[in-house]
Specification:
This protein is about 30% helix and about 25% strand. The C terminus is likely disordered. It starts with 5 loop residues before the first strand and ends in a 14-residue tail after the last strand. It folds into 4 domains: about 100 residues, Rossmann fold (3-Layer(aba) Sandwich); about 60 residues, ATP-grasp fold, A domain (Dna Ligase, domain 1, 2-Layer Sandwich); about 130 residues, D-amino Acid Aminotransferase, Chain A, domain 1 (2-Layer Sandwich), CATH 3.30.470; about 80 residues, ATP-grasp fold, B domain (D-amino Acid Aminotransferase, Chain A, domain 1). By secondary structure, it is of the alpha+beta class. It is globular, with a radius of gyration of 22 Å. The strands form 4 sheets. It has an 8-stranded antiparallel β-sheet, with helices on both faces. It has a 4-stranded parallel β-sheet with strand order 3-2-1-4, sandwiched between helices. It has a 4-stranded antiparallel β-sheet with strand order 5-8-6-7, sandwiched between helices. Keywords: ATP-binding, Ligase, Nucleotide-binding. One of its GO terms (molecular function) is ligase activity. It holds the Pfam family ATP-grasp_4.
Length: about 425
């Protein structure tokens, strides 16, 4: 067996374009450091992510979502694992349990459980003095209606443990509560919380030596309520220094309070007249191509390499950690309906500032109502010298693509342009 350090890559990638891209970068940065990489996941996911499997040193079939299974597998295998890591949100508990089981650096399992349970995370932050919306775990409509009767609205109804804005909706009056509950993905207990008004941001960063290092603050754009699907990001967010410092102090304090200490983080928040209100906390890097945006904004950054070096006790002091350029991503948001044609897409692909672009629909496809992230039909990621320039360019490129509906082809061919 090779003496090279072995990285246990729990969960590998999801069969989604941004996850596959993140995994490819992580594997390349691991290879550059001479690491062996052992990828685990179910047989179904491994088969669906063959590019990741092909680049790994070894793979094993393990259900990374089943509590305790990854830790038991690692103990029984008897192989030396020098670092344990995962990109995926749902694999973070398995990573913490496995790292503890094999005796390497990791986040405490109870801290990861707390962060992954949205109401428990809110309660921990509120107990430590961080402003938080009031939240309640509800088993049924009657309990949710009681919450609405106790606290002023509007309110948010959302799953306790889900991703991609699935089942998240705004309730402006009690009569709309049943419709919101009907949007939930399953019959499990769900959360109801007070709506927070204000622009939204996220904070991207990495733990180095147990200390959170913020790499950038990202500005978010979303569809109008009642849904909250993200349609764009700008990095770094154009903010006055005082507001950026306020955000960084709150996020750093929250991460320390919650007990996280290794890996990446992605923390969501609102800026309100009363100050920063923290939203969901994630012990992994952000999705939606934020990793590509960070790599452009911070030239020379090796996002995953930073984590691997930290996990292996190889501190780096020669890497840039401050943005010097700007980047943005914008998603297409055409209205629902069947389309006859897409015009202008090839020009977008040819633009020199485009870091990544993808389109998931073509002639004859049906565009669904935009209620969750999975309903989005395409995107453009761009890099520029400043975040303002990147934001403007991303908007222009998205606006330049025309989705022609079947119902309009006889009357107004090629004239229907919508974002």
């Amino acid at each position: 067996m090779s003496d090279a350090p072995t990285l246990l890559f729990v969960g590998g990638a999801r069969p989604l374009s941004f996850s596959l891209d993140m995994a490819a970068e992580a594997l390349a940065q691991a290879a550059a450091r001479g690491l062996r990489v052992h990828v685990t996941n179910t047989a179904e996911v491994l088969a669906a992510t063959r590019d990741v499997v092909a680049k790994a040193t070894e793979t094993s079939t393990v259900d990374v979502l089943k509590p305790g299974e990854s830790a038991s597998w690692a103990r029984e295998r008897g192989e030396r694992f020098d670092a344990v890591y995962a990109l995926q949100e749902l694999a973070q508990v398995a990573v913490a349990e496995t790292a503890e089981a094999v005796g390497v650096a990791g986040n405490p399992p109870d801290a990861v459980h707390r962060v992954r349970t949205k109401d428990a995370c809110r309660e921990a932050l509120a107990a430590a003095g961080f402003p938080q919306p009031v939240v309640r775990l509800c088993a049924n409509e009657a309990e949710a209606a009681a919450f609405l009767g106790e606290y002023a609205g509007p309110w948010i109804v959302k799953p306790r443990d889900a991703m991609g804005s699935t089942g998240v909706s705004l309730v402006t009056e009690p009569a709309r509560l049943p419709a919101a509950i009907a949007l939930l993905p399953d019959a499990k207990p769900f959360l109801v919380e007070q709506f927070v008004e204000g622009p939204e941001f996220s904070v991207e960063g990495v733990f180095l030596g147990g200390v959170p290092k913020i790499l950038a603050v990202t500005a978010k754009e979303k569809v109008p309520p009642p849904f909250f699907v993200e349609t764009g990001h700008v990095l770094p967010a154009p903010l006055p220094d005082a507001r950026r410092q306020e955000i960084e102090e709150q996020v750093t304090g929250a991460l320390k309070t919650l007990g996280l200490r290794v890996g990446g983080f992605h923390v969501e928040l609102w800026l309100t007249p009363a100050g920063v209100v923290l939203g969901e906390v994630h012990g992994r890097f952000g999705g939606d191509w934020i990793h590509r945006m960070l790599a452009h904004a911070i030239p020379g950054l090796e996002l995953y390499g930073l984590v691997f070096d930290d996990l292996l006790g190889r501190p780096r002091t020669d890497v840039p950690l401050e943005p010097s350029r700007g980047a943005a991503v914008r998603y297409f948001t055409p209205p629902p309906g069947r389309i006859a044609a897409v015009e202008g897409w090839e020009d977008v692909l040819a633009h020199p500032a485009v870091l990544h672009a993808e389109l998931g629909v073509g002639p004859g496809d049906e565009i669904k109502p935009l209620t969750r992230s999975g309903d989005r039909v395409g995107l453009v990621v761009v890099g520029a010298d400043t975040p303002e320039a990147a934001s403007a360019l991303a908007a222009d490129l998205v606006d330049s693509v025309k989705f022609v509906p079947e119902s309009a082809t006889d009357r107004l061919p090629g004239l229907w342009a919508l974002r």
